[in-house]
């Protein structure tokens, strides 16, 4: 093979010991050359020609170059003549010089070693690779070579060649300063939100090095599982963005893989080698040594969250007997006491670098001192107190020793005897608009939240200790328990005795009780009930019932949905909050029905104080209450917040003497402006959602009996979901509004979802959609997109509960095929898969056959695609039985004497000018034309408009046929002019007709594509029977003869058209240039015996004039 080349080195015979490179115009005779080196500009390689008489030691290095020894170099080198040289010079070199981006030789001084060159050649030689071009430097393209996305997994091409060279220690990444990195700045996470000195918070210990070096997460951070799920979703995608870090820098934020295969937020804290990094997982505190391939760039959305792991040490203790380090037993015991447990953390001191010195307590314990982790390690001889600190001096400066319960009941103003009048309302008025610290003990709804003031914690603690001591050895009593009786209740969940009142007797062995020191309601065994001692009755109820102000339910309802109640309960229960009492000027002392109106402030997971009412409004779970009438402001403080009336005798309490009974019998404040008397009852008795029909309105069916629609989805049961074309504008408008409403949302905190609940969901297409919950299973939920019908499993972090759009009916309509019975009485999976492949996202014609009795049921329809009935088509494929099979014969195979034919295209009247395109040229005189549908049809004749409509309908029908072509039988009866479908070289099937058999073995048939006029010789495997609906469209290509010219009599071109030798090939090419891809116009001269036309070009001149000018044709008089 001869190749283009450039001489790069010459060694003449006369100077064997001195090589000369062509830096100047040096010339030698070929016979005087001992060695010639040439660069092949179209391949990028070099070849060396050596005269056979030359000393082999003079051969150039490296020896890997292709070397040819010859006795005559002239046999391998030619100088092209001037004509060929001019043509070759117009073609640029086909080999482009490139350089891999950001890599350098392992040893800069030695350059690229032979091993690196050999290995690189092995990876790329004669293989297809994907090349990404970054820039050009001095004529060299700076690129990255990668494995093509379509290549097989088994291929030995590495994903990235430069990574492979570095990994093989044959190259290194170019060192870059931080200011020279692609992102120009090193990304960092914001530091964790740490509690203040003296603050107590609930935490989870996430990583332990020793009792003096461990990490914990605040409980709010533990709840943020959505962040982790979002990271997995993005970074586990193999076809995701290129997020590799080629040049890691110490201190850089990243996403790193763990041993469990998941990805977590991390920070690079060391670079042990060029291929390794030391990372710290910022949300857990542990470190790991990883390779570069296990770290990724961090997206901006994950940088906005502060680090979760807070570094801590246990306060006031050190290794046992002053040892230098903690022993293994102490570490294991510390892990055992804290592993997977919710702990209470008391911050003693904040040390340098924001390291917390803390005391840890078991959060479920009654007596903190008894279960202090610090003290337990000392008691078990696993730790010692630091010098100068003893257990006796453990009391903190601000700690107040509680008085005995008996003293509290005598002297404290925090209680009210049963016969004492309620505290005056002025006590609460004096606290109005001031912040009170409390803890949420129980949440029923935004209108019913129970709060325990922190100032009452010592009373609650003393009461629980007294009850634990008094009832510890008690036995079940033979008491006839009745509704309204007060009792002591043992709660197994927390191992505590609490005060309660019986709400109702459930059975002989169980009762429902109200725990009025927390506000919760429990169903317990009667064996857990004891008579409440009199001195325990004198202490007021320690849970204040509150109601959030200035908000009301969404969707025009007067009831709070279970979604709002459960989400609020998850967010608030157990949280330490600030409450601000907001009394109305219409407060009335004798009103006993309203909860205390308050504003509740609590910390979100970023550590900021958030108004709970504003949070609910922002999340779309509540609306702002803007009514300002007197009634709206008249939410009064209930006396039940100030006292608990007990009766000495455990008889039935009437409503006037028992505020607790009143609280149980009513569901909401009677005059609360936001909530009506129909407010929902506590969660234990609320009804679950029954489905979408109670949340969304039913879909609307268009009035027209026949309409066009898009098939959005095929359900697993064969339900066909359609979106009428007339609904598309309204749907797009709604989707745009939803995107604008929810586009600014961050990660969503988890909460308890219910089946049938309305929501919006960010789908796999990253777009927000209306949806409903289908199935709840762990952190992944099954949702149905109500405007498209399909069902998808989605992580909770992508769901958002809202009832904003429930008043708009779904845009997709569930349908079933009319009078069509699936084989086996239900659609088999293969049939559903086939329907999905055939119909999804396709436009079809819908005939409404029968409306459902229930608007939520399926609409009975006949569906037509490409003019074919879906029911009949599926019946032909043996997937179902169509009761009304009138269209079956239209899908049949044309056999026997039945010889269908195509319809002919109606032609315009002679003399009329019409737009055309040329689809095939047989000779300069004989062509095939189609009416041009791209023109302005309003100015066209009726014939042209009809032809244009037929052309568009035919394209749609052929598109459908290409989808179902494998179901059509092969042609076995080869009659001339028989219509069929034939596969063209582009892999698509078109309408054709049989012309003749050109070869018997193997069988080859000549066919003509009737809509283009082109011919093809094809085997029988590429011919299939044509469905009946395709025969109703006229053939699109019309054979015509051009008038006004004939072959030139003096055309001297030797090459002629074989089947039309009167014309030269040059004339054929010239005609092709005149008509190919152009918008032409024509007028008919005659219709018989042949259709003869005049053809005009873009310039309105006859196209054959160009051939006459070239001497390839002449005018025909």
From TrEMBL:
Gene Ontology terms: cellular component: cytoplasm; nucleus
Compartments, record wording: Cytoplasm; Nucleus
PANTHER family: RING FINGER PROTEIN 17 (PTHR16442:SF1)
Gene3D superfamilies per record: 2.30.30.140, 2.40.50.90
SMART domains reported for this sequence: TUDOR (SM00333)
GO MF annotations in UniProt: zinc ion binding
Signal peptide start-end: none
Species in which this protein is naturally found: Cyanoderma ruficeps (rufous-capped babbler)
Assembly: Interacts with MXD1, MXD3, MXD4, MXI1 and PIWIL1. Self-associates.
Name of the protein in question: RING finger protein 17
Purpose of the protein: Seems to be involved in regulation of transcriptional activity of MYC. In vitro, inhibits DNA-binding activity of Mad-MAX heterodimers. Can recruit Mad transcriptional repressors (MXD1, MXD3, MXD4 and MXI1) to the cytoplasm. May be involved in spermiogenesis.
UniProt domain Tudor: residue ranges: 247-305, 480-539, 752-809, 973-1033
A single BP term in Gene Ontology: spermatogenesis
UniProt feature, compositional bias: Basic and acidic residues: 678-691
Keywords for this protein: Cytoplasm, Developmental protein, Differentiation, Metal-binding, Nucleus, Repeat, Spermatogenesis, Zinc, Zinc-finger
Domain of life, source organism: Eukaryota
Phylogenetic lineage: Eukaryota, Metazoa, Chordata, Craniata, Vertebrata
InterPro entries: RNF17-like_TUDOR_rpt1, RNF17-like_TUDOR_rpt2, SNase_OB-fold_sf, Tudor
Start and end residues of each stretch annotated as Disordered: 667-691
